[in-house]
Amino acid sequence: MTAELLVENLSLDFPLYHGSARSLKKTVIGNMTGRMGADTHHRVVVQALRDISFHLTPGDKLGLVGRNGAGKTTLLRALAGIYEPQVGRVRMQGSLNALLDPNLGMNVELTGRENIALRGHYNRLPLAAIRRLEDDVADFAELGDFIDLPVRIYSSGMIVRLGFALATAIRPQVLLMDEWFLAGDANFLEKARGRLEDLVRGAEILVLSTHLSSVIEQWCSRVIWLDQGRVRADGPVADVLAEYHAAA
Amino acid sequence: MSDTPHIFAPSASFDIAAGPSRRDMARAAREDLLLGLSMWRLCWSLALLDIKLRYRGSVIGPFWLTLSTGVMIGSMGFLYAALFHMELHKYFPFLALSIVLWNFIAALVAEACQCYILAEGLIRSVRMPITLYAGRVVLRNLLVLAHNVVVIVVVDAVTLNTPTLTWLLAIPAIMLWLLLSFAVVLLLGALCARFRDIPPIVGSVMQMAFFVSGVIWHPSQLVKYEYLLVLNPFYSMLEILRAPLLGEVPTLAVYASALGYAVLTVSLTTLLFVRVRGRIAFWV
After folding, report:
1. Considering CB atoms only, which of A83, A87, A92 is closest to B14?
2. DSSP assignment, residue B271?
3. pTM of full prediction above 0.80
4. What ipTM goes with this model?
5. Is the CB of residue A42 less than 8 Å away from at least one CB of chain B?
6. Which residues of B60-83 are buried (b: 16+ CB within 10 A; e: fewer)?
7. Is B9's CB within 8 Å of A123's CB?
8. Residue A209: inside a domain
9. Which of A9, A44, B209, B248 is deepest in the core (most CB within 10 A)?
10. Residue A16 forms part of a structural domain
């Protein structure tokens, strides 16, 4: 199947329930009395994304830039099919891996091996592939005999390596990556670089959210600048980055 | 870079259009359910690991459940048989079944409320069928139930409550229980994720239900008011499974009540799930 990522007029509101409208009482009372009805309708929402459209086909490597809170991570989550849009459409074809949370589903009480198997199941890998995943990840993360011990007792370096190895072991056609992923100490990055580049090269479509221009220049062929949930600029890397830096 | 061959992610296409018609929403819900079922292996692993984690480091592990249920039934049995003037060999099998089944219901309902809330991390970082989280809670509680069934077997053996033909009636009852368990978890999970006031309400309702549903007292003790019990869904559900295993045939009224409440719950759940499936990621 050819990979494809199509986004049409995507808008997304984020309801904030913690403030006022979350409680049952407010909603029930709000529905009963006209005065408080306004409360349920005017509940606090954050307009996270507004009218975003783009179409990515194999070979497209898209970088997302923007300030904190511009909607980069929310957009990645919408692309991953986690947040379903209220307006517009997101269509993804092919296989997908979204590197959003460094410790995705990792449970520190479980052993390394159990965590690896779980990740394999999340990705719906067949059992044989899960065995290979175990070897691959244990090898890269240098777990050795620790693989059958709870992650809780691992050194922090080991946990970072395990998380990274897990995230980069499974090769998708569409790769979504958040910037946390490029963080880490220099020593580790040196070792991780080859593996990450391999993963990125293997992906047909890449969407990468980051603050680092150098990473975008190296990996991306197109940049979208998000500002307050809207596309402020969209085009070739050099043009958009120049505009972005001029404004910043 | 490693020497092992590459592991490729299997295809997982999706197409989410906003503001879809009811039919599209129903289709998305159906796909969610089918995908959830196809991922039974993950569901099973998660449920098993949940149990393992609860008892990691303990010597007899989940059999603590069996032991504590056994001790509870053993101590309550003599007391209440005396209080209610019932014969021990009749009361013990009744109590064992009632307590074990009620513990299942109570734990299932309590964990249903936390179904999505506790899975927040997963829900927000990977697209997985929502029904999978509900399946995990049901499976986990079935595993606990399986440990407690040992108590029923022992009590039945000691009191010579041997299988009769009526035990066959337990089979359709178990099917209904499974279906209803799944529906209840989906329903409460979504409601509790949206309205955080609901879990405490559910908690107090369940506590009350324990006393009014004929768990420790025998329905026949109500004498002329026994017929009113079928208004209580907990009683009817308990009775369709408990009575056959005690060698009795539940009355038609009990069956009608159990089926009626089940149809109501499943319909309500279906309506709600179709509507809110896509919103749960925003609520947790």
Report:
1. A92
2. H
3. yes
4. 0.84
5. no
6. eebeebbeebbebbeebbeebbee
7. yes
8. no
9. B209
10. no
